[in-house]
UniProtKB/TrEMBL annotation:
Name of the protein described by the UniProt record: BolA family transcriptional regulator
Superkingdom: Bacteria
InterPro entries for the chain: BolA, BolA-like_sf, BolA/IbaG_stress_morph_reg
Annotated Pfam families: BolA
UniProt organism field: Ottowia oryzae
Protein family (similarity comment): Belongs to the BolA/IbaG family.
């Protein structure tokens, strides 16, 4: 899987303001900014992203995905975006 493919899958299931991906095709690190994360704890945010990938996580198409998740306000407060 390419970074563009993974980015498209996440964006199709989650309204994102920003997605940055790095990885080797199976192991990925993502920075994801979405207003949908407002009021969610970190684990719930991660579960929300995993839900966008569905079976791809279970079939090992995406072996590992570590991520940092932010709301737009959190992202702006970091001086990003």
């Amino acid at each position: 899987m390419t970074a563009d493919q993974l980015k498209s899958l996440i964006a199709a299931g989650l309204a994102c303001d920003h997605i940055d991906l790095e990885g080797d095709g199976r192991h990925w690190f993502a920075t994801i900014v979405s207003a949908e994360f407002a009021g969610m704890r970190p684990i719930a945010r991660h579960q929300r992203v995993y839900a966008t990938l569905g079976e791809r996580m279970k079939t090992d198409e995406v072996h590992a995905l570590s991520m940092k998740t932010f709301t737009p306000a959190e992202w702006s407060a970091r001086g990003a975006g």
